[in-house]
Design a protein that fits this description.
This protein is mainly alpha-helical and 92 residues long. It is built from 3 helices and 2 strands. The longest helix is centred in the last third of the chain and has 43 residues. This is DUF4212 domain-containing protein.
């Protein structure tokens, strides 16, 4: 079975997106907790920033990351389907 170069491009984009989103996830998880004492001087809605990130911010960002990944990959899937259906009709 011959591999289509479009699949390689699709998986390269998918892998890159996953790597970037994992980096964002790590930063959102690690930075506020590592610097919690330093960030405790900043207040957001009356709460210390580190507490706000732990209680509300990080889970909200995690949902945004998942939603962004689903939206972006839906677009990539549509592009791949369109490219594959265009190349399949050209060979017939």
């Amino acid at each position: 079975m011959q591999k289509n170069p479009r699949f390689k491009l699709y998986w390269r984009r998918n892998s890159m997106l996953i790597a970037v989103l994992l980096l964002v996830w790590f930063l959102i998880t690690f930075v506020p907790f590592y610097f919690a004492r330093s960030l405790g001087h900043f207040f957001l809605f009356g709460w210390p920033f580190s507490f706000w990130m732990a209680a509300f911010g990080a889970p909200t960002f995690f949902l945004i990351i998942v939603g962004f990944y689903a939206w972006r990959m839906d677009g990539e899937d549509k592009k791949l389907r369109k490219n594959l259906s265009g190349s399949a009709s050209g060979h017939e």
